[in-house]
Every structure is written in C-alpha cells, then in structure tokens.
Amino acid sequence: MQARIENPAYLLPESVKAINLLYKEAHSAGVEPATLELVHLRASQINGCSPCVDSGARNARKNGETEERLYAVAVWRETPYFTEAERAALALAEAATRLADRPDPVPDDIWAAAAAHYNEKQLAAIVLWIATTNFFNRINAATKQPAPQNWG
C-alpha cells in the first residue's frame, strides 16, 4: 500500500509538539505502561490501523510484553492472560473507540469497572490515550499510511 500523502505530522511539524504533550501527559498519571500499550493496540486493531498495530505490538514486545498476550489482545475476554484492571481498561478502550455502535457509547458498568481499578487521574490518562490512539488511527487510515516494511 502506498500512502496518499506523507505522514501529516511530517508535513505540519509544529503538530508534533502537541502530539508529544499528549503522549507525555497520558503516560504521567501512574497507569502501567503495559496497560497503555494494550489499550493502544486494541483500539488500533478495531480501527484497522496497520502502522499503529504493527508499531504498538513491536513496542510492547520491546518493553517486555509477552507474545502470548499480544496474540490474544483481540480476544482478551476469552483468555486468562489479562488482569482485571487490564480487562477494565480494554473494555473502556473498545467502548470509547466504537462510539457509534450503541446508544450509550460508554455504559456505566464499563466505566464503573475501570473506576474500580484506576483513580480519576489515571482514568483521565486512559481516556486521553484512547482518544490519542484514535486520533493517530484516523490520520493513518485517511492517508493510507502503511506499516513500516523495515525495522532495522
């Protein structure tokens, strides 16, 4: 696949400052980095964002995530590999990514499950990271950004 245009962040380099701030803030609230990686990967799978799925899985693996868990992210409900806190974050990621799939996009039970494991600041970080991931996914899908071919 060939991209329609170069990555917009390269074409509009000042946007990188804002993107870096979003990343920094989402990763500063005390949520386990592995949880944020899983949230990013799941939202990217739902949106079919090949560069984000590819880089998300590679980064998670580089940071110590097991292949077993990475292979199972798309079917996390049917596997024993995830903690209850991770499951709550993954459910929140799915609901907040699939906004148009139901009249109440993020039902109270999904929010309550996440709130049982994360404080307000951590919930804010997870929601911010889900939104940031969806932001990346939409840019990449609209411009047909391919997954990298060489990871030398």
UniProtKB/TrEMBL annotation:
Gene3D superfamilies linked to this entry: AhpD-like
Pfam families linked to this entry: CMD
Molecular function, one GO term: peroxiredoxin activity
Location of the Carboxymuconolactone decarboxylase-like domain: 13-95
Chain segments annotated as transmembrane: none
Coiled-coil regions, chain positions: none
The protein, known as: Alkyl hydroperoxide reductase AhpD
Source taxonomy: Bacteria, Bacillati, Actinomycetota, Actinomycetes, Micromonosporales
